[in-house]
């Protein structure tokens, strides 16, 4: 081997291969041993249940035997009741004899129970010795928990150490459960014996003195001694249970300490990544929501333009004294004008609405500002308000109240968005994830959101004032009616407020676009 190095290398490779095979076999055997232990615990639980059932059956059997003996004694007494003097003597002796027999039966029952408990304790001791032997095997192969290096392998794999601790913990818990059940059974038996002794003492004090009082006191003293023995055994079991619970707590603490040491490094590495991923997901969700809302804006702008043109056309027609629906087509409105009032028509034709980016004239603005309120004053035409007019006023009031609720909901949503954005910015500053450009854009967005929220609150106050001014007229012959009022006329101040914000605002195009989008949502919702 010293002359050629190839033979040494082959030998090392073969030894490494054998070592790997041995490790695999040991791991597989360990898993099989765990499965066998689980099956064994299941069978032990089943055996314990069967033992308890057997004890209950024996108790019931003993009770039936006692009842049978009592029935036999009663039958014998009935047969021998012909001899009066004998019966008188027996009547004097029967209460004490029955009590003594009952006490003897109870004593026999207690002795049987004590024998069963001793057998159980012997079995438990055997199982404990076997478990300790298996635990010593584990320690000899895997090493002790407190030792720095186990004996089986250098350091030992963490899975085997954890499996060993779990196995020990499970064994201790099973022993604690078994002892707890036994303690409960002994306490129940102890209470029953105490109750019987109290009954016997009461009978002794209430009855008269008899010649068998000494024997009864001796039997009672024997019962007390056996009861004391049972109580001592119960106390011993309680102490054992307390020791096992302390051992269980100690093993649990060691297992938690080992888990904490093994998982501390992984948790420290993945903690920051989890936070950054959560923040990125929230940012993506917010951007997707903004994109969806901007898509709705493009769809609602066209409807807004159509409604604005219809409102302006209706304002012009009502100002000139022409009754026409804002939803009529251009051809129908022109034909109606030619047939009905050619004299009242102005010499030149006015346009129905602004084209492109034009703004309305001052006259049209004044007309529109006066449109909602001038219908509350009498007109020279002298029309009577009918049921349809009152219904229209009720519809207008309900529509205005619904719009006010929508504005309140939008104000609360905007406040929520502002607070969430503030929290997100604070988190971004904390983790250092925000650039300078992102910081500036988010500051501008925050300012825009504050302005929008303030404008929405002001508009809500104006709408509330308008609702307070709006009253549904009552049907009376004395009051003169005025022109019927449409829903579009009632919302002309809202449209005028939006136009003023758009035309006279010094904000950027992005800000104007967002303002138009938010106020358009008022009418859609």
UniProtKB/TrEMBL annotation:
Residues 70-103, 321-364 are annotated as: Disordered. The keyword Hydrolase does not apply. The chain crosses the membrane at residues 494-524. The keyword Membrane applies. Residues 169-303 form a coiled coil. Residues 99-193, 220-307 form the SOGA coiled-coil domain. InterPro entries: MTCL1-3 (IPR049885), SOGA_CC (IPR027881). It holds the Pfam family SOGA. GO terms for biological process: regulation of autophagy. One of its GO terms (cellular component) is membrane. Keywords: Coiled coil, Membrane, Phosphoprotein, Transmembrane, Transmembrane helix. Its main location: membrane. Residues 70-91, 325-346 have a biased composition (Basic and acidic residues). It is found in: Membrane. This is Protein SOGA3. It comes from Tyto alba (Barn owl). The lineage of its organism: Eukaryota, Metazoa, Chordata, Craniata, Vertebrata.
């Amino acid at each position: 081997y010293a002359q050629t190095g190839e033979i040494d290398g082959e030998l090392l490779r073969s030894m490494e291969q054998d070592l790997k095979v041995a490790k695999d076999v040991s791991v597989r055997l360990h898993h099989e041993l765990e499965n066998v232990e689980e099956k064994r615990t299941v069978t032990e639980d089943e055996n314990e249940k069967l033992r308890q059932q057997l004890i209950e059956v024996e108790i019931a059997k003993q009770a039936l035997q006692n009842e049978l003996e009592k029935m036999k004694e009663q039958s014998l007494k009935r047969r021998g009741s012909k001899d009066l003097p004998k019966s008188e003597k027996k009547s004097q002796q029967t209460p004490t004899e029955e009590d003594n027999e009952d006490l003897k039966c109870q004593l026999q029952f207690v002795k049987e129970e004590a024998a069963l408990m001793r057998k159980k304790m012997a079995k438990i001791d055997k199982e404990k010795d076997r478990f300790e032997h298996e635990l010593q095997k584990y320690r000899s192969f895997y090493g002790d928990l407190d030792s720095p290096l186990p004996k089986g392998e250098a350091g030992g794999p963490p899975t085997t150490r954890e499996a060993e601790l779990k196995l020990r913990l499970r064994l201790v818990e099973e022993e604690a459960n078994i002892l707890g059940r036994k303690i409960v059974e002994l306490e129940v038996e102890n209470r029953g014996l105490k109750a019987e002794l109290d009954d016997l003492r009461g009978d002794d004090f209430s009855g008269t003195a008899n010649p068998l009082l000494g024997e009864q006191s001796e039997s009672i003293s024997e019962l007390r001694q056996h009861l004391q023995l049972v109580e001592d055994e119960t106390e011993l079991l309680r102490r054992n249970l307390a020791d096992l619970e302390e051992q269980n707590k100690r093993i649990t603490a060691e297992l938690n300490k080992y888990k904490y040491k093994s998982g501390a490094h992984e948790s420290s590495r993945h903690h920051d990544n989890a936070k950054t991923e959560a923040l990125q997901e929230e940012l993506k969700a917010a951007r997707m929501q903004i994109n969806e809302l901007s898509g709705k804006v493009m769809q609602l702008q066209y409807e807004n333009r159509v409604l604005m043109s219809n409102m302006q056309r209706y304002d012009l027609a009502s100002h000139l004294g022409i009754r026409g629906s804002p939803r009529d087509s251009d051809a129908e409105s022109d034909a109606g004008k030619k047939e009905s009032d050619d004299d009242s028509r102005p010499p030149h034709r006015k346009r129905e609405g602004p084209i492109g980016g034009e703004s309305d004239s001052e006259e049209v603005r004044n007309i529109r500002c006066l449109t909602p309120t001038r219908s509350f004053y009498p007109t020279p035409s002298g029309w009577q308000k009918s049921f349809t007019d009152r219904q229209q006023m009720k519809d207008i009031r309900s529509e205005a109240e619904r719009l006010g609720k929508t504005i309140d909901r939008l104000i609360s949503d905007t406040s929520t968005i502002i607070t969430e954005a503030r929290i997100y910015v604070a988190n971004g500053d904390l983790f250092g994830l925000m650039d300078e450009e992102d910081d500036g854009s988010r500051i501008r967005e925050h300012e825009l959101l504050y302005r929008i929220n303030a404008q929405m609150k002001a508009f809500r106050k104006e709408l509330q004032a308008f609702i307070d001014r709006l009253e549904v007229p009552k049907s009376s012959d004395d009051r003169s009616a005025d022109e019927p009022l449409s829903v579009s006329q009632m919302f002309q101040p809202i449209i005028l407020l939006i136009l003023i914000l758009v035309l006279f605002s010094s904000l950027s195009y992005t800000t104007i676009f967002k303002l138009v989008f938010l106020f358009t949502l008022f009418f859609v919702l």
